[in-house]
Amino acid sequence: MWRLIFLIGIFYAFFKVRKLVKQIRGAANQSLSNNQTNNQLDDLMIKDPVCDVYFPRREGVHLNDQGKDLYFCSKKCRDAYLLQKKSY
């Protein structure tokens, strides 16, 4: 009788540990896929509105112009955009 209870306890513990391992692996895989998605979004190629050059957004110079996010390949292009805007 005690052997049966002992075996049931071992099987119960085994399945609990197995379930926990699956949960940990699932969380790790989800975290990895989220990081890959974030890296892919950072690597978007965008076009400079002044010189029409394409560059990775994360390397660009950011400007928020009246609620619109603009990215430039350099500070020189950003400044040229601002000068053009002033002349209007």
CATH topology (fold) name of the largest domain: Ribosomal Protein L24e, Chain: T
Tell me, rounded to a whole number, the average pLDDT: 84
Overall structural domain count = 2
Helical content class: 55-70%
- CATH architecture type of the largest domain: Roll
| Termini gap | 93 Å
How many distinct helices? 2
Strand order of the largest sheet: 1-2
Q: How would you describe the shape?
A: rod-shaped
Given this structure, which CATH class of the largest domain is correct? Mainly Beta
Q: Could you describe the largest sheet, including whether it forms a barrel?
A: 2 strands, antiparallel
Structural class: alpha+beta
Low-confidence stretches: none
Strand content: 15-25%
**What Rg do the Cα atoms give?**
28 Å
Overall description:
The chain has 2 domains: 42 residues; 43 residues, Ribosomal Protein L24e, Chain: T (Roll), CATH 2.30.170. 61% of the residues lie in helices and 18% in strands. It has a two-stranded antiparallel sheet. Strands 3-4 form a two-stranded antiparallel sheet. β3 and β4 form a beta hairpin. The protein starts with a helix and ends with a helix. The mean pLDDT is 84.
